Each structure stands twice: as structure tokens, then as C-alpha cells.
Amino acid sequence: KLVFVLHPNTDGRFVELAKKYGIKTIILNNKNIASWMLSKNDEHWSCFGHQEASKQVVKNLNAIIKNNKSK
To answer: Residue 18: which residues within 8 A CB-CB, separation 6 or more?
Structure first.
């Protein structure tokens, strides 16, 4: 199975296209996303940002797996 992990500001048309073709998506929650950045001038994620993203990915993948097992 294929799962796309997407930025919160990903174009909705892309998300809909993925769904149309049966590709599951995880859209990261952007709550406090500014705290993930290295600085105001550098939007790359810090170690903290990567950790927060990974928590969301694990949580969502576990839900997808659980849902697939119940089918």
C-alpha cells in the first residue's frame, strides 16, 4: 500500500487526486508548525520538528493498519 505524507498546505486538488486513485494520505497537523522550523528565515525542520512529524505519521499509520485489519 502507498501512503503519502503531506504538508498541511498541500493543494487540495492533489489530495483529491490521490484519493481518487486509492492512495491514502496523511496530512500533517500544522498546529504550532512555526516551532518546528530552524528559524524565521529557514523553514527547514529542526530535530524537534522531525520528531513531531514522526509522531503524527506513526499515529496515522497505526490507525490505517488497524482499519485494514478490521476489514
So the answer is: 4, 24, 25
List of residues 6+ apart from 38 with CB closer than 8 A: 44, 45, 46
The tally of CA atoms less than 13 A away on the side-chain side of residue 10 is: 16
Closest among 21, 44, 17 to 33, alpha carbons compared: 44
The residues with which 27 forms a beta bridge, in sequence order, are 6
Q: Within the chain, which residues score under 70 in pLDDT?
A: none
20 in Cβ contact with 29 (< 8 Å): no
Is the CB of residue 27 less than 8 Å from the CB of residue 6? yes
pTM for the whole structure: 0.80
